[in-house]
C-alpha cells in the first residue's frame, strides 16, 4: 500500500471518513443565479467523490438571500431547497465519500452588486480594500436574527443528508471580522474583549447544535494568521482554537489570510512556499484534542503523507489539487504519481475565472466545470485527426480526440513538445508550471499518440497526409515593432533569453511590463545578470493576477527599475530613446529585450483554410490570449473533432 497514513480511515465526531484526502470549500459559480443547485454542480462534486476523496466540503452556503459573496453563491434557507441538496449528498454518498456543508456570511467581503442590491453588513463600518463599500454595522437585534438564520440553515443541511457542517470563521468574512480586532471596533457586548468578540460565534454554535444534535459533526474553519498589517497572529489563534474546542466544535479546518493578504496569500500562488500553514497547524494540532485539517499549497500526495507523518494534522485539504485532478486519490492509491495532473498554483482558471464572474475553471484541466458536457462517449465513426503544433493547445486537442476514439497524429516543428509554454516555466516562482508539460507529455505517451517532432507543415504535406480533420495549433510569434535600429545585434526576444539562448548581461532594458516582460526581468535579476530597467507604456506593470504585488516586491528587493509611461521611439548603439511622459529621454542599454506581446502566426492556417475544408484553429494562432484559453480551446476542438 502506498501512502499508508493517507488511506487510514478516521472519525470526525461520529462520522467515519474513509481516508485523509479532503476537498476544502471552493466557490464554483456552478449554481444558478438564485443559488440553487444545478446538474453541473452535482457532476462537479461527483467527479471528486468518484476520484476517491474521503471528505468533500461544499462551497460556502448563504443563510439568507442577502448573505452571499458572489454571483451564483449557493444558499439554503427554505425547505423547498432540500430535495436538490439531497440529490447532491446522495450522489456523493454513492462513492463512499462524506460531504460537509460550509456555512458562512460574507460580511464586508461582498458588494451590493452581487448581493441583490443590499449593502454589505459587518461588525464595524470599515470597508474592505477589495470590495470597497462601507458596510452597515449590524445592530444587536440584527445579530440575533442572523443567529436564528444560521440555526435554520443547519437544520436544513442535516435534513439534506450532509454528514457535517463547517462554520466559516476564516478569510475575513463576517464571523472572522467579529473575532479579529482588525475589523471589530464595536463597543457593545459583541466588541472589545475576547469574550465579547467571540460571543456571536458562541451563540451560533449553540443555536446550530440545538438543531443538529450532539452526534453530528460541527467543525470550524479558522485562519491561523491573517497575513495583513494588523491581522491576527498565532498566539491569539491558539486562544481561539482552544475556546472553540471547549465550546464543543468537533474539528478545525486550518487555513490563513483574508481577501487582501498577498504572498502569503489565502489561495497561494507560486510566490508562497508550499505547505505554508503546516508548521502553524502543527502547533494547533499539538494543542487541541479534536481532529484538524490543514490546507494551502499541498498539491501532491507525497507531501500530504509527509504532513501526516509529521503529525501536523489529521486530514489534508487539497482544494485546487482536486480541481486539477479529481482522480488524484485513486491514482495515489495505485502509486501512479507520474499520472497525476498537478495543480501548478497559477490561479488563472480557478480564482481568475471567479473574479471575472465565470464558473470555476482550471488551466491544466479543461474538463472542470464541464462535467455534464464532456462525458467522453466513444464516437461512432472514428476519424483520422492531424494536429499541427505541440504546445498545450495542440496536446490537449490530441489527448481529447484520442480519448474519444479518434486516431491522432501530432506534428511539431521543434525538437520537443511544449511550444511557448516551455519558456514560461523558466522565470523565478514558475518552476511548478513544468508539471503541466510533464503531465501532457505523459498522456501523449500513455495514449499512444503518434507524435512526429521536427516536422514542419505546409499545404502539400498536410493534404498528402489525408486527415479527416486538421487542428491547427501553431501559436503566435513575438511582436517586433517597426522602429529604427530594431535589427541591432543587442536586441533579443524575451523567450530566447528565458530559454538561455541569449546569455546577456550588463545594463539591460526590457521593453514591455506585461507578464512576459516582468518575468524576464525577474529571471535576469535573479540570475544577477546586471541592472535591469523595464520600460512600460501604460501607467503600471501587469504581472498577472495576484502576481503583480509580489513581483513589485521582488523588483524592490532586487533593485529593478520600472519606468512607466515610457514609449520606445528608437534604438541606437547602446541606447534606447523613449518618450517619457511627453519628454524625450535616453536610456543606456548594453542589451535590450523585447517583450511587447504576440501576434497570431496564421500564415499556414490561412493557406490551409483556403485549400481544405476540414480545418479548425485553436490557441494563439486564432488570437494570442493566455495558456488557460489555449488549453480550453485545444481540448474542445479535440473533443468535437
Ligand atoms: C476557486 C476557489 C474558491 C474558494 N472558495 C472558498 C470558499 O468558499 N470557502 C473557503 O473556506 N475557502 C475557499 N477557498 C480556499 C480553499 O478552500 C483553500 O483554502 C485554498 O485554495 C488553499 O488550498 P489549496 O492550495 O489546497 O488550494 C477557495 C479556493 C479556490 C481556489
Ligand atoms: S487554475 Fe491553476 S491554480 Fe487553479 S486549480 Fe488549476 S492549476 Fe491550480
Description of the structure:
This protein has 641 residues and is an alpha/beta fold. 32% of the residues lie in helices and 18% in strands. It contains 21 helices and 27 strands. The strands form seven sheets. An eight-stranded parallel beta barrel has the order 3-4-5-8-9-10-11-12, surrounded by six helices. A five-stranded parallel beta sheet has the order 15-14-13-16-27, with helices on both faces. Helix 3 (140-159) runs parallel beside helix 6 (199-212), helix 13 runs parallel beside helix 15 and helix 13 runs parallel beside helix 21 (627-639). It binds flavin mononucleotide and iron/sulfur cluster (SF4). Flavin mononucleotide binds at residues 24-27, 59-60, 102, 168, 170-171, 221, 255, 267-268, 295-298, 317-321, 350-351, 354, 360.
List the helices and strands and how they pair.
Elements: E1 10-12, E2 15-17, E3 21-23, H1 39-50, E4 55-62, H2 82-93, E5 98-104, E6 121-122, E7 136-137, H3 140-159, E8 164-168, H4 174-179, H5 194-197, H6 199-212, E9 218-223, H7 234-247, E10 251-255, H8 278-287, E11 292-294, H9 301-309, E12 315-317, H10 319-324, H11 328-333, H12 350-355, E13 384-388, H13 392-403, E14 407-411, H14 421-424, H15 434-446, E15 450-452, H16 459-465, E16 469-472, E17 476-478, E18 491-493, H17 494-498, E19 506-511, H18 515-526, E20 530-535, H19 548-557, E21 561-563, E22 566-572, E23 575-580, E24 583-588, E25 591-594, E26 598-600, H20 603-611, E27 615-617, H21 627-639
Parallel strand pairs: 3-4, 3-12, 4-5, 5-8, 6-7, 8-9, 9-10, 10-11, 11-12, 13-14, 13-16, 14-15, 16-27, 18-25, 19-20, 19-25, 20-21
Antiparallel strand pairs: 1-2, 17-26, 22-23, 23-24
Bound molecules: flavin mononucleotide (FMN) and iron/sulfur cluster.
Amino acid at each position: 500500500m502506498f501512502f499508508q497514513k493517507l488511506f487510514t480511515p478516521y472519525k470526525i465526531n461520529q462520522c467515519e471518513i474513509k481516508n485523509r484526502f479532503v476537498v476544502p470549500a471552493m466557490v464554483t459559480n456552478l449554481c444558478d443565479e438564485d443559488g440553487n443547485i444545478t446538474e453541473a454542480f452535482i457532476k462537479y462534486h461527483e467527479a471528486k467523490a468518484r476520484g476517491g476523496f474521503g471528505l468533500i466540503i461544499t462551497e460556502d452556503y448563504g443563510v439568507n438571500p442577502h448573505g452571499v459573496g458572489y454571483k451564483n453563491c449557493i444558499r439554503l434557507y427554505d425547505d423547498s431547497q432540500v430535495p436538490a441538496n439531497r440529490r447532491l449528498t446522495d450522489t456523493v454518498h454513492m462513492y463512499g465519500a462524506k460531504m460537509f456543508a460550509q456555512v458562512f456570511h460574507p460580511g464586508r467581503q461582498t458588494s451590493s452588486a452581487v448581493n441583490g442590491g443590499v449593502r454589505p453588513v459587518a461588525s464595524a463600518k470599515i470597508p474592505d480594500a477589495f470590495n470597497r463599500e462601507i458596510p452597515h454595522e449590524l445592530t444587536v437585534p440584527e445579530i440575533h436574527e442572523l443567529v436564528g438564520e444560521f440555526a435554520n440553515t443547519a437544520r436544513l443541511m442535516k435534513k439534506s443528508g450532509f454528514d457535517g457542517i463547517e462554520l466559516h470563521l476564516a478569510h475575513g468574512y463576517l464571523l472572522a471580522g467579529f473575532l479579529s480586532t482588525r475589523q471589530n471596533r464595536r463597543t457593545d457586548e459583541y466588541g472589545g474583549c475576547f469574550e465579547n468578540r467571540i460571543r456571536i460565534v458562541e451563540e451560533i454554535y449553540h443555536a446550530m447544535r440545538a438543531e443538529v444534535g450532539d452526534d453530528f459533526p460541527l467543525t470550524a474553519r479558522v485562519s491561523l494568521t491573517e497575513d495583513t498589517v494588523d491581522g491576527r497572529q498565532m498566539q491569539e489563534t491558539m486562544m481561539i482554537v482552544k475556546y472553540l474546542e471547549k465550546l464543543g466544535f468537533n474539528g478545525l479546518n486550518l487555513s490563513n489570510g483574508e481577501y487582501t493578504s498577498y504572498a502569503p496569500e489565502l489561495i497561494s500562488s507560486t510566490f508562497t512556499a508550499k505547505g505554508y500553514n503546516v508548521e502553524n497547524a502543527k502547533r494547533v494540532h499539538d494543542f487541541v484534542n479534536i481532529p484538524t485539517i490543514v490546507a494551502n499549497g499541498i498539491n501532491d500526495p507525497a507531501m500530504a503523507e509527509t504532513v501526516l507523518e509529521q503529525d501536523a494534522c489529521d486530514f489534508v485539504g487539497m482544494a485546487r489539487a482536486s480541481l486539477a485532478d479529481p482522480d488524484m486519490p485513486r491514482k495515489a492509491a495505485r502509486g501512479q504519481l507520474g499520472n497525476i495532473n498537478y495543480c501548478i498554483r497559477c490561479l488563472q482558471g480557478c480564482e481568475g475565472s471567479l473574479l471575472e464572474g465565470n464558473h470555476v475553471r482550471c488551466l491544466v484541466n479543461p474538463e472542470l466545470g464541464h462535467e455534464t458536457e464532456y462525458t467522453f462517449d466513444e464516437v461512432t465513426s472514428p476519424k483520422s485527426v492531424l494536429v499541427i503544433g505541440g504546445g498545450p493547445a495542440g496536446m490537449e486537442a490530441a489527448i481529447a480526440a484520442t480519448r474519444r476514439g479518434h486516431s491522432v497524429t501530432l506534428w511539431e516543428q521543434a525538437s520537443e513538445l511544449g511550444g511557448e509554454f516551455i519558456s514560461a516555466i523558466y522565470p523565478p516562482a514558475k518552476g511548478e508550471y513544468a508539471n503541466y508539460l510533464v503531465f501532457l507529455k505523459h498522456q501523449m505517451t500513455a495514449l499512444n499518440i503518434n507524435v512526429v517532432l521536427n516536422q514542419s507543415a505546409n499545404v502539400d504535406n498536410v493534404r498528402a497526409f489525408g486527415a479527416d480533420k486538421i487542428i491547427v495549433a501553431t501559436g503566435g510569434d513575438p511582436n517586433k515593432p517597426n522602429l529604427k535600429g530594431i535589427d541591432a545585434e543587442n536586441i533579443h526576444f524575451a523567450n530566447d533569453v528565458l530559454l538561455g539562448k541569449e546569455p546577456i548581461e550588463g545594463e539591460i532594458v526590457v521593453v514591455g511590463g506585461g507578464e512576459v516582460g516582468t518575468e524576464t526581468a525577474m529571471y535576469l535579476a535573479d540570475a544577477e545578470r546586471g541592472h535591469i530597467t523595464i520600460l512600460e507604456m501604460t501607467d503600471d506593470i501587469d504581472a498577472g493576477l495576484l502576481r503583480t504585488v509580489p513581483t513589485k516586491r521582488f523588483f524592490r528587493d532586487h533593485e529593478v527599475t520600472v519606468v512607466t509611461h515610457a514609449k520606445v521611439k528608437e534604438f541606437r548603439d547602446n541606447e534606447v530613446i523613449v518618450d517619457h511622459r511627453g519628454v524625450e529621454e535616453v536610456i543606456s542599454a548594453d542589451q535590450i529585450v523585447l517583450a511587447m506581446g504576440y501576434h497570431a502566426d496564421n500564415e499556414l492556417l490561412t493557406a490551409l483554410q483556403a485549400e481544405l475544408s476540414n480545418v479548425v484553429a485553436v490557441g494563439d494562432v486564432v488570437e494570442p490570449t493566455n495558456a488557460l484559453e489555449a488549453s480550453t480551446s485545444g481540448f474542445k476542438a479535440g473533443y468535437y473533432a
